């Protein structure tokens, strides 16, 4: 049977939720306080989960130190202490909801991690709101 | 691929575990301290998880503010600061174990949430004891 | 300089807040949901803190295993899985607010612990509400 | 002896750390990633602690529901889902470090709470960085 | 539908990661700080999850007090306050990675728990590194 | 009034509690499971708290990035992934109880931090056992 290994990292970022094709009142109605044009922000907690076979020589599925280095290089360098809307290429066209941040994170890391591993992203925007991708 | 979105809420309640068809000694033996006829209580942490497609206009699977409002209206109004055995209709005939509280919560919310979303309930009775429904 | 050592324990209990000398409407107004006559309940997290000199032979201020045993014997045996109002002598005359539970706990443990140690009680009623005695 | 009662609330905000009288290189050197001109953000956890005598009628030092309402009205309404630098009058002239957010919070609440209570602010900017005022 | 019930326990242990068939430099390169020949250690958080049908008489899937007793008898007695490499038979031939501790725990408990229940192990080695078996 | 700033770090280490001047039975009696000659271990959570005046130019009491660097250089380099009894000079003559680890940490950091700051160490050995120095 396969084993899953999980690594938790965090980043702090500002963002604003809105649809640039909508009038202000519609954005205000749908996104409420999250639509503040001056941005607000979060401490995001990011969990990356890999599932696969154990290496019989090491007992590891994947070295979590290497997974941490990958997340730092490809995700935290882009997102940490940034304004997601203004500083991150991927969110110039899509809304930086927790769902979309998880999907973008998945798509970036999927290219860096061998397909023999299943990949899942769990992202806490606050202690009470979190998302998982794939479901 | 689908995305899951999760909202955590909490409520405080009193309860007693017992089977009204059993003699006292049997209830004492099976339910131990949880069978105290004068009740005891918990801070319950409730997580409601919905899985589905993202709305392309908003980037949301489901607005977590609306999900929080639903949970407050249909669950917390019934359970919070209540005696589950005496004050809540659903537990007048069934034992308010964590398993049954999760099933009752699922059955109530399932009627309020479109069937295009998968629904799952995670309920912490204490930091060390929790249940999930469906499994 | 002195060192403090702290031990965290927990108990689950039901309670109701009210002043038996007041009319119902006054209790309802002052204590709100906490005044439910059928009780509600909490997972209480209790921290007992002792401050004193280290024993030069052991490096301990106080053996935390012994402190845990004391708390279990004198506090958890009385409070855990109980109805504080109905089952606990100390709360038959006083209201089981978090403040009073902390004061009662202090008074019980103060008799069991040598006066060469300073004693402090920290009690979490919920994750968001907690009290300390002495202040 | 006095008792302390504590209420924890949270808010999400964007901010940027810098001294407007300094050249960019100096701000970059001193504040590093926190100096991003496009802002970043945090989930702030705010604990407000009051110490005083218990009311003999209620057993309360201070009704934590009322304390929560005060914090919501005077602090969260100003800070939650805001850009501290751009949206909050108090931080137009001072740098929104955790230290200054705690001091500003103290000064606002001190006017709303009777001086018979000692007041203390504990503010978590991240799980690993927090401040207390007064020390 | 089935319900899952989960019980969390903890144990403290020392361990060292290495492959006895490798030269020192290779162990140093692959396992880094975890290869310290004098050992290091962790507070392990262990969650055991059982999924099955509810007993219609009790409302339980499985009595979590009994599950706690099983984990204490078969796992904590072996692992708690031990050196996994030196004191635990199962790790004399295999490397005590988090993955292998989870697999060994699964194999021991699988024999003690009726096959009508699905069994899953979740093991936190640190707050940031954890594993699940089966995946 | 002064402000306190706090930084939390963690390290993993093995240790054994015993008094080298005592016979085995006495060590066994006093230190119980913690006396295992093969060692056990913990994930230690270390909080370093500095209290002082704010710098009027920055709004900081002390740059927490610098405090983190100091703790890493002077404490984590010595303690992390080590056997406290065998690998750390300071514990060759004194018992590595949580109390003594806090005192040793204080004494090392006191030399690195200007005396205009008050210094306090808070050390969690487990989630349920922690110490503070000075008291």
The CA-CA distance between the termini of chain A, in Å, is: 21 Å
- Whole-number mean pLDDT of chain A: 98
Provide the CATH architecture of chain A.
Answer: 2-Layer Sandwich
Oligomer: homohexamer
The chain-level structural class of chain A is alpha+beta
Query: Which descriptor suits the 3D outline of chain A?
Result: elongated
Q: What number of structural domains do the residues of chain A give?
A: 1
Low-confidence stretches of chain A: none
Largest interface: A-B, 23 and 21 residues
Strand order of the largest sheet of chain A: 3-1-2-4-5
The tally of strands of chain A reads: 5
Query: How many DSSP helices of chain A?
Result: 4
Strand residue percentage of chain A = 25-35%
Radius of gyration of chain A: 17 Å
Give the C-level CATH assignment of chain A: Alpha Beta
CATH topology of chain A: Tetrahydropterin Synthase, Chain A
> Portion of residues in helices of chain A?
25-40%
Short overview:
The structure is a homohexamer of 135-residue chains. Chain A is of the alpha+beta class and 135 residues long.
Describe the structure.
Six copies of one chain form a homohexamer. Chain A has 135 residues and is of the alpha+beta class. Chain A has a single domain (2-133), classed as Tetrahydropterin Synthase, Chain A (2-Layer Sandwich), CATH 3.30.479.10. Chain A is 30% helix and 30% strand. A five-stranded mixed β-sheet of chain A has the order 3-1-2-4-5. In chain A, a hairpin with a 4-residue loop joins strand 4 (118-124) and strand 5. The longest helix of chain A has 16 residues, at 64-79. The two termini of chain A are 21 Å apart. The mean pLDDT of chain A is 98. Chain A binds chain B through residues 17, 19, 30-32, 94-100, 102-103, 127-135, and chain B through 1-9, 51-52, 54, 57-61, 63-65, 118.
């Amino acid at each position: 049977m396969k084993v899953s290994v999980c690594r938790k990292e965090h980043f702090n970022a500002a963002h604003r939720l809105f649809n640039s094709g909508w009038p202000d009142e519609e954005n205000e109605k749908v996104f409420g306080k999250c639509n503040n044009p001056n941005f607000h922000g979060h401490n995001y907690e990011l969990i990356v989960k890999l599932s696969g076979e154990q290496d019989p020589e090491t007992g590891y599925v994947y070295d979590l130190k290497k997974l941490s280095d990958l997340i730092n290089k490809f995700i935290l360098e882009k997102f940490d202490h940034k304004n997601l809307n203004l500083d991150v290429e991927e969110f110039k066209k899509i809304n930086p909801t927790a769902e979309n941040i998880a999907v973008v994170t998945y798509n970036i890391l999927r290219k860096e991690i061998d397909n023999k591993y299943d990949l899942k992203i769990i992202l806490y925007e606050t202690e009470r709101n979190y998302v998982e991708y794939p479901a």
